[in-house]
Design brief:
Length: about 525
């Protein structure tokens, strides 16, 4: 009853807000998150459900466009020193925090450089650890890392060059917050967010719904000079059952729907991955590359001589031994692309399948590699155990059946997700299903998984290769994009040769919206930025 009362309160407040402003045509965008939001504090925006909500409420110094190029946001411009150690940002002078009782008189004040300094030091405050603190870990100067020479200039100082720093600053972790609200609410800032974003907080009933309203004082405009956002409000519900949420979308009670599951995928898509023709008059489908690589990891341990996976030829045979394209068509209605190149996925500017030719289905080559390893037709090859969670059982089973045709016996051990991650961290998983999603849009975010100086995470495979390490370290210092991308591609070729993973597929997002919706973003980081979205009611 308490939850029902809270939900009624949200609807009542939302309706009252509409009634108060009848002179405007109130337009709300409605979508569902199957994973409830845990915090509206950007320092805790570690998962998609939190990130999407935080993006409505806050801004950072810089932002990504849909092509993953870094663009101005709170900073109108910036300069990077020749040695790559100092970033100087020139801030906009027309940005104001949302009105809130934390400010004197309840009126949001102007955002200044000191707010950036406060926000970044708050993020790395060790007395209150926050998930986002890693973005600066071992990267910033030991002394005076964040400076505000005046109200409109912010300076970031690094201890060594790191070429992905600008991309990292586009993450929601790096959002700017006001000290007044953080001090006024303390740890309850998670429920009382105050930012500079295109929408301002209205009400949140945890596990029920969230409502944010248009920030009438937002600073960004479109190409015609019209002030953003176009929407008057955003309402997010938290129906945990995806099938139920799907039915709400089909009934027109949600404007937007994302994610695919076997329970309803065939009601939306044809076997080739297109929207079913009988739905095209009401909905549209938008598919985009997603910076997520799905793979099977192999723990490399040369001392484990009885494990056949320690033989490179066996790892290569596994990669040649199953049909990625057929797997995606059969099980995912062609949502996703076969991982026929390196580990870093499609959608990244450095991705180049010509420079990085990877594995394709070739059972003859797989058989030859088995024989080379001393196991012709799999004779004498011990059974291999693959740890997998239930969400990916169908994909792993598909590959295992094709491997069995070659003589490679793979048994699948279903493992609860949290236990699987624990085993991966503790070096107790020899062969495991995993995925890696970009923290920021640069291949370094993926290749760091194989740098030998990194533990688990992210180096769950314990991969160690001196040439790979040399190239990785060189790429961190390289300021020329073309040269850096060539270094990335050289690293990818090493990974393909050594095969510490079985490359499965590069993910895609599938978004569905009613025909009344326009302006949905199409980016490879799967960020639902709503400031340019329109809904025609």
């Amino acid at each position: 009853m308490k939850h029902i009362a809270l939900l009624f309160l949200i609807i009542f407040c939302f309706s009252c807000h509409q009634a108060k402003e009848r002179d405007e045509d109130r337009v709300a965008f409605r979508y569902n998150q199957h994973n409830p939001i845990t915090s509206l504090d950007p320092a805790f925006a570690r998962s998609q459900n939190n990130i999407w909500a935080v993006d409505c409420l806050f801004n950072g110094l810089v932002q990504l466009d849909d092509s993953l190029h870094v663009k101005p946001c709170l900073a109108r411009s910036w300069e990077i020193s020749e040695d790559g150690l100092e970033y100087k940002f020139h801030l906009r002078k027309d940005v104001f925090f949302h009105d809130n009782e934390a400010f004197e008189g309840g009126k949001g004040r102007k955002m200044v450089a000191a707010d950036v300094v406060y926000s970044f030091y708050r993020l790395i405050d060790e007395t209150w650890p926050k998930p986002g603190s890693w973005i600066f870990k071992d990267r910033i100067a030991d002394d005076s890392a964040f400076l505000a020479p005046n109200d409109s200039v912010f300076v970031l100082r690094l201890n060594k060059p790191f070429q992905a720093m600008l991309q990292i600053l586009t993450m929601q972790y790096a959002s700017v917050v006001p000290h007044e609200a953080c001090e006024f609410y303390g740890r309850d800032f998670r429920r009382n967010p105050v930012g500079t974003g295109p929408f301002r907080f209205k009400i949140w009933a945890e596990n029920q719904a969230l409502v944010v309203l248009k920030n009438q004082n937002y600073f960004e405009t479109d190409s015609n000079g019209t002030r953003l956002p176009y929407l008057d409000a955003v309402k997010t519900t938290f129906i945990t059952d995806r099938k139920t949420a799907f039915l709400e979308f089909m009934k027109g009670r949600l404007d937007y729907f994302f994610g695919l599951e076997s329970a309803y995928i065939n009601e939306l898509l044809t076997p080739t991955g297109d929207l079913k023709p009988d739905l095209s008059d009401k909905f549209y489908c938008q598919k985009n590359p997603y910076l997520n690589t799905e793979y099977l990891g192999i723990r490399i341990d040369d001392s484990d001589l009885n494990n056949p996976l320690q033989k490179k030829a066996i790892r290569q045979a596994l990669n040649y031994g199953f049909d990625r394209g057929q797997m995606l068509q059969t099980l995912r209605n062609n949502v996703g692309k076969p991982a026929n190149s390196g580990f870093a996925p499609r959608g990244l500017p450095s991705f180049n399948s010509v420079q990085v030719p990877g594995y394709r289905y070739d059972p003859a080559k797989a058989s030859a590699l088995l024989a080379k390893a001393g196991y012709p037709r799999g004779k004498g090859l011990p059974e291999i155990t693959l740890l997998c969670n239930t969400d990916y059982l169908d994909l792993c089973t598909f590959a295992a059946r094709q491997w069995e045709d070659l003589g490679i016996k793979v048994s699948i051990e279903l493992t609860e997700t949290s236990l699987l991650r624990e085993k991966m961290r503790n070096s107790q998983a020899d062969f495991f299903r995993a995925s890696w999603i970009a923290d920021y849009p640069d291949a370094e975010s993926f290749l760091t998984c194989f740098y030998s100086q990194n533990g688990a995470p992210p180096n769950y495979t314990h991969f160690s290769n001196a040439e790979f390490d040399r190239l990785y370290e060189a790429s961190l210092l390289e300021i020329n994009d073309k040269i850096r991308y060539e270094l990335y591609q050289a690293m990818e070729r090493i990974l393909i040769e050594e095969a510490p993973v079985v490359f499965m597929f590069y993910d895609e997002t599938a978004q569905f919206a009613g025909k009344q919706v326009s302006g949905l973003p199409a980016n490879a980081i799967n960020l639902l930025s709503l400031k340019r979205v329109k809904v025609a009611r």
